[in-house]
Structure formats: structure tokens, C-alpha cells
Design brief:
Layout: H1 11-16, H2 19-41, H3 50-62, H4 65-97, H5 99-112, H6 121-128, H7 132-156, H8 160-168, H9 173-184, H10 186-211, H11 220-229, H12 233-261
Helix pairs in contact: 3-12, 4-5, 4-7, 4-10, 4-11, 6-7, 7-10, 8-9, 10-11, 10-12, 11-12
């Protein structure tokens, strides 16, 4: 491995070596291209400018409307995320504990994992009615299988040496799972958390676009749908930009921080 002597690097090389600065440059370039294309198109109903979108974003957050919708969306997703995590851990523990549990997990993942969450929207509407319970049901399906498969793969990859260490200390049942398997499988679990979050976030917006309102408590998807009907296209783009920003923050702040303080710090992942 060749190490660069930073004292001999030019100013440009030092700047280009900063990770966040390179990504910021990409974002600025994309925003500039957006602005240029929108001005060239000159049709605000089709494609508003970046500056108009930012102004709409500031306005929507300023009057509290978009902030309320964001909180509604995150609340439903976190509820579904928690339910999905509990179900995923339960299914995985059953699968590694008994043969019938492993068979159940294989059958469920083979039959339900390929089923797109949005395909369950009509059934959710029929069973739970219009509103948050229907969305939570669909979101649980969206996050459950990716998380379950990653946890299961993580448990399966735990070395026999660690397993024997746990057994030598007399660990059995849930103590063995929580003290040996989960710490050893943490990289796979974190991957599952990230993937399931992405699935859930996308499904949430799609579900809200269809029936995401109940007693004026709709989320971001419903905000986008309402603004589209009112032909406030700059606010539609502001809603979409909010979805992107939240996704970036969760991925690059929450999960990156969690990885740095766990698997990277402990040398479990390069």
C-alpha cells in the first residue's frame, strides 16, 4: 500500500482528498444542472427551478405544514420498523432453534418476500380501512423480509469457535442468541437494518400517495399528492426533495455513525 505525503500534495489534491467536499461538489453540480434545465425548459408546471423548489421547501417548513407531514410519516415508519424488527428476530430465533422453525422461515420468505408491498394495499384497505393502520401493515411487510434474511445469514455465518465458547460458558437459549450470535452477526444485522429502512421509506411514500390521509394526518406522500392536485408543482418538488434529504441523512448520518461506533470500531468490518 502506498501512502501519500500530504505535505507534498497540491491544494487541489488536498481538497479532492476530502470525502464530504467531493460529495458536496457533486450535489452543487446537480443543483446547477437542475436550475439550468428548468430555466431552459421555461415551464414551471412541468419542471420548476431549483431556487423555486428551495423557496417552496422553506415556505412549507416555515408554516409548519411540511414538518407535521414529515413527523407523521416518520412516526408510522418507526412503528412499523419496530414491529418488523421484533418479528424478524423472533422468526430468526425460531429458525435456528428448531427444524420446523427453519422450514417455516424458508416457506414464508419464498412466498412472501417476492410479493411487492404495494400489492397489499387493496387488502390493507379492506382489512384496516383508510389511514395509518393500513400503512403500518404494508410497511411491516416491506421491512420484515430483508431484515429477517440478513439476520438469518448473519447468524449462519457465526463461526463454530464462537459457538463453542458460548456453550462452554453455559450459554443457552436467548442468552446464547443475545450474547454470542447477535454481537457476532452485527455487520449483517446493520446491513439488514439499512436495506429494510430503504424498502420501508420507499413503500411509505408510495402508500401515502394512494391512501395516506386520515383526519388530516397524512404524511409526505399525501403532501405531494395534494400539491399536485392544486398544481403547486414547486411544492411537489419540495416534497420530493424532502424525501431525498431524509434518506440521505438517515443513511449518511444515523447508520454511518452507528457503524463507526460499533463494527468499524471493533474491527468487524473494513
Amino acid at each position: 500500500m502506498v501512502f501519500k505525503d500530504k505535505t507534498k500534495l497540491s491544494v487541489w489534491e488536498r481538497i479532492s482528498d476530502i470525502n464530504w467536499l467531493r460529495k458536496l461538489a457533486i450535489v452543487v453540480t446537480l443543483a446547477a444542472l437542475w436550475q439550468i434545465y428548468a430555466i431552459w425548459l421555461n415551464n414551471a408546471l412541468m419542471f420548476p427551478t431549483f431556487t423555486a423548489t428551495v423557496n417552496a421547501l422553506i415556505s412549507a417548513f416555515g408554516n409548519g405544514e411540511l414538518l407535521e407531514r414529515v413527523l407523521n410519516s416518520l412516526k408510522m415508519l418507526l412503528i412499523a420498523y419496530a414491529i418488523g424488527a421484533v418479528l424478524a428476530i423472533t422468526l430468526t430465533i425460531l429458525s435456528i432453534s428448531t427444524r420446523i422453525g427453519n422450514d417455516i422461515l424458508e416457506v414464508l420468505t419464498a412466498t412472501l418476500n417476492p410479493l411487492a408491498p404495494v400489492a397489499l394495499l387493496p387488502l390493507a384497505l379492506l382489512w384496516f380501512g383508510l389511514g395509518a393502520p393500513s400503512i403500518v401493515f404494508v410497511l411491516v411487510h416491506a421491512v420484515l423480509w430483508a431484515l429477517t434474511l440478513n439476520i438469518h445469514n448473519g447468524f449462519a455465518g457465526v463461526s463454530q469457535t464462537l459457538r463453542m465458547v458460548g456453550r462452554n460458558y453455559g450459554l443457552k437459549g436467548l442468552r446464547f442468541v443475545f450474547l454470542i450470535l447477535i454481537p457476532a452477526a452485527l455487520p449483517s444485522i446493520l446491513t439488514g437494518l439499512k436495506v429494510s429502512w430503504a424498502f420501508g421509506w420507499r413503500t411509505l411514500i408510495a402508500a401515502e400517495l394512494v391512501f395516506g390521509v386520515s383526519s388530516n394526518s397524512g404524511g409526505i406522500g399525501w403532501f405531494i399528492f395534494e400539491k399536485k392536485n392544486q398544481l403547486d408543482i414547486d411544492f411537489v418538488f419540495a416534497g420530493l426533495l424532502t424525501v431525498i434529504i431524509i434518506g440521505i441523512l438517515v443513511e449518511n448520518v444515523l447508520f454511518k455513525t452507528l457503524e463507526k461506533r460499533t463494527v468499524l470500531k471493533w474491527g468487524m468490518k473494513q
